[in-house]
TrEMBL record:
<dbReference type="InterPro" id="IPR050638">
    <property type="entry name" value="AA-Vitamin_Transporters"/>
</dbReference>
<feature type="transmembrane region" description="Helical">
    <location>
        <begin position="244"/>
        <end position="261"/>
    </location>
</feature>
<feature type="transmembrane region" description="Helical">
    <location>
        <begin position="70"/>
        <end position="89"/>
    </location>
</feature>
<feature type="transmembrane region" description="Helical">
    <location>
        <begin position="181"/>
        <end position="199"/>
    </location>
</feature>
<feature type="domain" description="EamA">
    <location>
        <begin position="11"/>
        <end position="140"/>
    </location>
</feature>
<keyword id="KW-0472">Membrane</keyword>
<feature type="transmembrane region" description="Helical">
    <location>
        <begin position="211"/>
        <end position="232"/>
    </location>
</feature>
<keyword id="KW-1133">Transmembrane helix</keyword>
<feature type="transmembrane region" description="Helical">
    <location>
        <begin position="34"/>
        <end position="58"/>
    </location>
</feature>
<feature type="domain" description="EamA">
    <location>
        <begin position="150"/>
        <end position="284"/>
    </location>
</feature>
<dbReference type="GO" id="GO:0016020">
    <property type="term" value="C:membrane"/>
</dbReference>
<comment type="similarity">
    <text>Belongs to the EamA transporter family.</text>
</comment>
<feature type="transmembrane region" description="Helical">
    <location>
        <begin position="149"/>
        <end position="169"/>
    </location>
</feature>
<feature type="transmembrane region" description="Helical">
    <location>
        <begin position="95"/>
        <end position="114"/>
    </location>
</feature>
<dbReference type="InterPro" id="IPR000620">
    <property type="entry name" value="EamA_dom"/>
</dbReference>
<keyword id="KW-0812">Transmembrane</keyword>
<dbReference type="InterPro" id="IPR037185">
    <property type="entry name" value="EmrE-like"/>
</dbReference>
Amino acid sequence: MKRALLVTLLLEAALVIAWSSGFIGGKLSADTPGVFLVLFWRFLIASLLLIPFLFQALRRGLSAAQFRRQAIIGFFGMTVYLAAGLKGIELGVPAGLAALIGALQPMATAVLAGPLLGEKVGRRQWFGLLLGFAGVTLAVGGNSGDAPVWAYGLCLLGMASLVGATLYAKARGDTTAMLPTLAIHCIVATPVFLVLTLLEGNLVPPLESDFVFAVGWFIVFSTLGGYGLYWVCLKRTTATRVSSLIYLTPPVTMIWAWAMFGEALSAAGWAGFALCLLGVALANRRRHQGDSLDGAVGIAPASDRSARSP
């Protein structure tokens, strides 16, 4: 049990670091002809790299129903989430405010996880979630920007889309392996970003170091790392627990930015990081010392798991 808990904690720590890399990828893309062009090539190349694993899974019995479920999860959890959020930022929503909107995900997931998944969210967890949100607010600041109203709606749509994909994935309890899962998600995303890229310009990739590095960064850290670990952790723990980790990504992103771009770390940022850590710790703390491993790592109770359709 202790070993399983340790593995879960290590996976969750890696998830926070990898998920934060997506924001750095967005900054790297700022020096390229367009973020949609970067994302199109990201998903096209990732699809080509991952498709052998999908063929292997198909030979081993991956069903049409499993493929369809993963296509739905990928469309909402990856394609809509990224397209809507990035378009909102492009239209003028400040990155900090976009991060705040994204930080609503843990609370939205907790609200819906009870009636939809049977996950119990106690007072201590709610306090931790609220504390984590306060930490994000303190860390990223309060610039409201001057974007059109519907641009903020796009950021909300992206957040809601990831919440929906998370709850759907947890409810269905799909056992598809990580690499075939990512292959399906990338295959679904590629044609969408193909269209979005064509609407903005052309598909020809500039053979420049900034572009190649941004695409490679997204594939390794954000696709294989961020999304891969997100779905792996979701299979091991509850939707509320995994979503609560999102609170740690804006502060960790600040550390990434400091290390890579020399951006200053403010006192408010460090204070926000501390609040986020405390909030996540409270949100995921065991109620009693004698809890089983299920309680320790947040795995849904047996009654919930047996209720899921395959």
